[in-house]
Design brief:
Helix content is 38%, strand content 20%. The protein is of the alpha+beta class and 1034 residues long. Among the domains are: 224-333, Yeast translation eEF2 (G' domain), CATH 3.90.1430; 538-609, Elongation Factor G (Translational Gtpase), domain 3 (Alpha-Beta Plaits); 622-784 and 803-850 and 868-889, 2-Layer Sandwich (Ribosomal Protein S5, domain 2), CATH 3.30.230. Helix 12 (274-291) packs antiparallel against helix 15, helix 19 packs across helix 20 (584-598) and helix 29 packs across helix 31. The N and C termini lie far apart (96 Å). The structure holds guanosine-5'-triphosphate and magnesium ion.
Length: 1034
């Protein structure tokens, strides 16, 4: 029986760029379903799913929320998601709950950056997508396109979206920003319709019925099948044949009554594709009533008659022609029926979906250990199978995934239980009286039947059923207090819920922080983690206005951390409460929630704490020359430990940017590789899918290849300037360097490399070098075995003497001090204690025996470094030398950059550019949107300049421009923070330097130093004399 029920369920989310009409569409689906939650008249105006005050006020959705709808005998769980970048984490939580996705695209605005992001999310979560082209009415009434022009535009959007999907399929996908930038290159020739025949591989094909054309505002929409059915009898063709012919270059020959290609229709005739002639033209005719008041309403009556619609005379007589058109259109092509039929027809039920999604939700794990318990293994496998089959029988193991926790005021909970009994909601389990918020889990049941009152295991992402006792801390037992069906804001209590459903669960507030897997057995793998498009980057420090409220603030922060799936709450090194949010709108909502719901005290919020990095000057051009630096040049910094026994020499060079990028992006993977055993596939690698979405069989190999490719591409791009032989030489040199990676920093995985030094000849005195080993190269598979590359045999020969052997031992022990020194230096650079970025260090260290090079008897009496004092000295010297080396090599500050997409009407271009200029933005591209007066501008804006950007833009352009920011990359600031005029010309321009104001780079550095309490060199009074003379004159 369960099977039958399950086949009638559809779980779908609505995903799109901000403002493309998701919530408006959801309104119509709610109004069109059984239950009368929303009157059709209110649909599209009310925005039912935006039930938070803040959402209604700002008119944007801020969270994903679900509603259980009934359509015919189907249950449809619909999840509306936000489109604003700041809430993109909610898209991930919505996608995990769903099996299908309605991808909306505004027909006027077309594909935007968030469209890329949501398509990617749908692809990663293996959802079945359907395309909804919304706001068709704007093509008619705003852009005033002809039906043929509109057709070309729609075709282009479908083509573009298919292009993005095929990039995922073929694994050629870069990042959202990169693909937006690349998008402008490969534009097609849309004039030539013959080439636009969509091939079989396309994901979205109107002929297949997975593309809908709608106007959510007026409540109408259609797929091709609606028109195919209608014309089938009129044209005497089968509906199936018509459906195929209604899209693409197919024409109807009225004489022969045949569907033909372009050639068949004859060159001279004014034939239009069938989609234009049979679909768009009738729509345009209806809308003409609004546009031209002189067109009488006969058109409407004709439509009413031919489709037998029931439109009241009052609606038709309404003075506002819009009302009449809306009434006719929504009866003729009811939006909810179109979308519901598409969802039911094209999207899989949970049984079909879960068998497809299982590889993403619960990737098959390799079981390496032999000592695992076979019973456990068998059950784990059984659980997986039952999830794969979406087994909803009562005997099946219960498994559910909680994708987020959300807070609901206690008074909002239903007062009656599922049997109508009165329930007492007023105590939150565990933390009674702590707050009047109740935490609910947003969960999807993947197997079995959940019931209220049931006890269940809560597994965190790190749980491993095969490890038994050692992973106890990752599993807890909890009781499910109550289960609710979600109805937007409303909650409907139920006693049980079966696999394939989406529910809210009360009773897990104390057990789950953000997400978790629920299972009735311990022998179950936790679901793989969700993928988030960005991480929270906007950080502020928060303190209560009255210090006495500190306790309330800390409790409030704790609650907020639970209630918001994306916020991050930490305590900084200086003891401040730091809140990290995804962007300004998100931050503002968090602060409001803190003030009004969770902490209820007045707060002080610091200016944003922006992160920077530090590097040295040098772009691609002198990279090859740079290599020489590491190969025995005398350009080094030397430091000696206070006891004089160790001499450290440090050289630094800049890594090729492509290599830095690979290291930056692969930090998770690197972390896994460095911790794990070499060559073994690490389980945490499952999460590594930032750049290659499709699972890679051997991520280590893939990473190794990316690193080599990055280096080679730099040499190749520069080899135009140098001859072939030299290019080859550099290549082999780089390959050698890659075999000498000792450590990465900071925190072992950063984008800075410590190379193993290549000691050439023995030192004249009797000190010996600290050699290091190519530990990371080994892990990455650049070298086979530890040390074989570097350690040469004469080292062994030297060790024949006992005393020297002891010294060698000491040198070997000190290797870790060198690495620690490197880690410390790279985590806090010399400019403002921010981490270093993209640098390669070569640290040579020599230690001398205690008491210098005297005779052997004395050597043997040396004391071991019992308390680690010497080790500490070596570490500090390495750190200082690394920092000094960076200072010496023209240090530069590195800023995080946002990629910014702006849409502006032509008349506001001037003010928009003014705002961009004030924000140090760099324009990448500006383009007029075809057929409209809107400009799309792409730019990079430094994160530090982005606060208040959207507001300023809105003010200066009277709200006509909108901007969307996505974190893009790190970029070195070209200015020299320590600039003083040196050359003749510079002196001419800037004087002797005393009057040079600090440049931007210096200002940024000083601001960070001041914030961190580091000394800042400041001139308090500039040109005192000048000021005095001025004063006298007054
Ligand atoms: N002309 C026209 N306007 C529409 C249509 N659909 C939606 N809108 C308008 O577009 C605006 C945004 O609609 P929403 O439904 O809030 O958009 P959304 O996608 O939910 O936005 P977020 O949730 O904030 O990402 C509203 O002003 C709607 O009235 C349509 O078909 N035609
Ligand atoms: Mg919305």
């Amino acid at each position: 029986m369960g099977d039958f029920d399950c086949r009638k369920i559809r779980n779908t989310c609505i995903l799109a760029h901000v403002d493309h009409g998701k919530t408006t569409l959801a309104d119509h689906l709610i109004a069109g379903s059984a239950g009368g939650l929303l009157h059709p008249k209110q649909a599209g105006r009310l925005r039912f799913m935006d039930y938070l005050d803040e959402e209604q006020r700002r008119a944007i959705t801020m969270k994903s929320s679900s509603i259980a709808l009934q359509y015919k005998d189907y249950s449809i769980n619909l999840i509306d998601s936000p489109g604003h970048m700041d809430f993109c984490s909610e898209v991930s939580t919505a996608a995990r709950m769903s099996d299908g996705a309605l991808i909306l695209v505004d027909a006027v605005e077309g594909v935007h950056i968030q469209t890329h992001a949501v398509l990617r999310q749908a692809w990663i979560e293996k959802l079945t997508p359907c395309l909804v082209l919304n706001k068709i009415d704007r093509l008619i009434s705003e852009l005033k396109l002809s039906p043929l022009e509109a057709y070309t535009r729609l075709q282009r959007i479908v083509h573009e979206v298919n292009g993005i999907m095929s990039a995922y399929k073929s694994e050629k996908y870069l990042s959202d920003v990169d693909s937006v930038l690349a998008g402008s290159v490969g534009e097609m020739d849309y004039e030539n319709h013959e080439f636009l025949d969509d091939d079989e591989e396309d994901t979205f094909q109107p002929q297949k019925g997975n593309v809908a054309f709608v106007c959510a505002l007026d409540g109408w929409g259609f797929c091709l099948s609606e028109f195919a059915d209608f014309y089938a009898s009129k044209l005497g063709a089968s509906a199936a044949a018509l459906q195929k012919a209604l899209w693409g270059p197919r024409y109807f020959n009225p004489k022969t009554k045949m569907i033909v290609g372009k050639k068949g229709i004859g060159g001279g005739s004014k034939a239009r594709p069938m989609f234009v002639q049979f679909v768009l033209e009738p729509l345009w005719q209806v809308y003409q009533v609004i546009l031209n008041s002189d067109v009488d309403k006969m058109v409407l009556e004709k439509v009413i008659k031919s489709f037998n619609l029931s439109v009241s005379a009052r609606e038709l007589q309404n003075k506002d022609p819009k009302v009449a058109v809306q009434a006719v259109m929504s009866r003729w092509l009811p939006l909810s029926d179109t979308i519901f039929s598409m969802v039911i027809k094209c999207m899989p039920d949970p049984i079909g979906a879960q068998s497809n999604r299982i590889s993403r939700l619960l990737p098959k794990r390799e079981v390496l250990d032999n000592g695992v318990n076979c019973d456990v293994l068998a059950e784990v496998e059984l659980v997986r199978e039952s999830i794969e089959a979406c087994d909803s029988s009562p005997e099946a193991p219960c498994v559910a995934f909680v994708s987020k926790m959300f807070a609901v005021p206690l008074k909002m909970l239903p007062k009656r239980g599922s049997h109508g009994e009165v329930v007492n909601n007023l105590t939150e389990e565990g933390g009674a009286g702590e707050s009047d918020e109740c935490f609910l889990a947003f969960a999807r049941i993947f197997s079995g039947v959940l019931s209220a009152g049931q006890r269940i295991y809560v597994l965190s992402a790190l749980y491993d059923p095969l490890k038994g006792e050692s992973v106890q801390k990752h599993v807890q037992e909890a009781e499910l207090h109550s289960l609710y069906l979600m109805m937007g804001q409303g909650l409907k209590p139920v006693t049980t819920a079966k696999a394939g459903n989406v529910v809210a669960i009360r009773g897990l507030g104390q057990h789950i922080l953000k997400s978790a897997t629920l299972s009735s057995t311990r022998n179950c793998w936790p679901f793989s983690s969700m993928m988030f498009q960005v991480s929270p980057t906007l950080r502020v420090a928060i303190e209560p206005s009255d210090p006495a409220d500190m306790g309330a603030l800390m409790r409030g922060m704790k609650l907020l951390n639970r209630a918001d799936p994306f916020v991050e709450v930490t305590v900084s090194a200086r003891g401040e409460q730091v809140l990290a949010a995804a962007g300004e709108v998100h931050l503002e909502r968090c602060i409001k929630d803190l003030k009004e719901r969770f902490a209820r005290v007045s707060l002080e919020v610091s200016p944003p704490l922006v992160s920077y990095k530090e590097t040295i000057e040098g772009e691609g051009s002198n990279l090859l020359e740079n290599l020489k630096v590491l190969m025995g040049s005398s350009d080094y910094i030397e430091k000696t430990t206070p006891n004089g026994r160790c001499v450290v020499r440090v050289q630094v060079m800049k890594l090729p940017p492509a290599l830095t990028k690979v290291l930056d992006e692969s930090s998770d993977l690197l972390g896994g590789i460095i911790e794990g055993k070499p060559g073994q596939r690490n389980k945490s690698l499952e999460t590594w899918r930032k750049n290659s979405i499709v699972e890679d069989d051997n991520p280590i190999e893939a990473l190794k290849k990316r690193i080599v490719d990055a280096v080679m591409s730099v040499i190749e791009s520069e080899s135009k300037e140098i001859d072939k032989d030299r290019a080859e030489k550099y290549k082999s040199l780089w390959l050698q360097f890659l075999q000498r990676i000792w450590a990465l920093g900071p925190r072992q995985v950063g984008s800075n490399i410590l190379f193993v030094p290549n000691y050439k000849e023995g030192n004249a005195d009797c000190s010996i070098p600290i050699r290091g080993c190519s530990h990371i190269s080994e892990r990455l598979g650049f070298v086979d075995n530890s040390g074989t590359m570097i350690r040469d045999d004469d080292a062994a020969a030297e060790t024949s003497l006992g005393a020297i052997r002891a010294l060698c031992m000491e040198a070997e022990n000190l290797e870790s001090s060198v690495v620690s020194g490197f880690q410390l230096a790279t985590s806090a650079g010399p400019l403002c204690d921010e981490p270093m970025w993209g640098l390669a260090f070569l640290v040579e260290a020599y230690i001398a025996p205690l008491g210098g090079c005297s005779d052997e008897s004395e050597l043997s009496t040396q004391q071991p470094d019992q308390y680690g004092i010497f080790a500490g000295q070596v570490m500090t010297s390495v750190k200082d030398a690394c920092r000094a080396a960076v200072l010496q090599k023209k240090p530069r500050i590195v800023e995080a950059m946002y990629f910014c997409e702006l849409v502006t009407p032509t008349e506001y271009l001037g003010p928009m550019y003014a705002v961009l200029a004030r924000r140090r933005a760099r324009i990448l591209k500006e383009e007029m949107q075809e057929g409209s007066s809107l400009f799309t501008v792409h730019a990079y804006v430094p994160v530090a300049e982005s606060f208040g950007f959207a507001d300023e833009l809105r003010r200066w352009t009277s709200g006509a421009s909108s901007a969307l920011l996505v974190l893009s990359h790190w970029e070195a600031h070209s200015e020299d923070p320590f600039f003083v005029p040196k050359t003749e010309e510079e002196r001419e321009e800037f004087g002797d330097g005393s009057s040079v104001l600090p440049n931007t780079a210096r200002k940024l550095i000083d601001a960070v130093r001041r914030r961190k309490g580091l000394p800042v060199e400041e001139k308090v009074v500039q040109h005192a004399t000048k000021q005095r003379t001025l004063a006298r004159k007054v």
